[in-house]
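Hey all, sorry for the wall of text incoming. These are the two entities for the joint prediction.
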Amino acid sequence: MINIKLRMLSILVTFIFISLIIFLLKKGKLKENFSLIWIIFSFLTIIITLNFDFIKGVAKITGFDDPNNALFFFSIILIILSILIVSIEISDLHKKVKNLIQEVSILKNQKDKKK
Amino acid sequence: MKKSKLLIIIPAYNEEKSIKQVVTQCKRISSHVLVINDASTDKTEIILKKNKVNHINLINKLQYGAVIQTGFKYALYNKYDYVALIDGDGQHDPTYINRMLQLVKKGKVDLVIGSRYKSNYRMPFFRKLGSFIFSLFIRLITREVVHDPTSGYQVFNRKVIEIYADDLYPTDYPDADVIISLILNNCKVQELSMNMKENKEKSMHNFFNSFYYIYKMSISIIITILRSKQKK
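and here's what came out:
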């Protein structure tokens, strides 16, 4: 069982994090579709803080001796996944920017020819 | 019968010394010449404007594959039947274009590559090794012999233009993977060996970190094969 101080700290940090996400969304600095994964992170953190047995159960099923290890393992997998999503998004943007530069440059060439 | 149109595409990045001469030589072969100025920082653009050369100024600098792809898209939009791709630094001799075009026009091949491998052009060691390994790949996968898949001197028909203008075309440095994907798409590829002037200035390929180069080529070849299997 986690002690009460640690729980309070964890919940406080999570709430600050959620407020930060909402603030960024409000300012338009973060797109809604990216916010989903961060909100999921936050809710998972709250669930685990309030109910540590949950992670103990997960550790038992997956064969971890120490539930802490299970916690770290799954957190890292989630983080790697979110980085992958960002990489996919960047590749997509890269392709779109390339197409835009090509098309605009061709259009400019045609506009100059008509002059 | 409609006369078939040939477009000569010349990618140029900071080629103020050589571009005028290359364009003049190319104009003797076809009146349709297109220079793609890859956001040069020298006088390339001014020279092109002064000589009234048809050119596209890219609004931002792109990687080599994306630069030449701009030309392929232009050729596709303006309904050209054949495209000749030639470097702007003067290392390729434009007089070969007619011979290459004749090969394509006969209809037996879709793409002719101007190869420097068989001539006395000296490549840096690592490029030579890379070139050798990937020719071997092409040979194993497609049973065709291509010695110099990286050559920027090519003549090809509409079928190849359409494949090159596609989003799947690599935007950095087209290499053996492109040739493999063409052959897997039932295009015939032929090499024509020729003499090339040694390029004293920095080649575009020198940017490559050797290990990254080997990795990138291996992965793109695997992906190319997987893609073509998926289509079938």
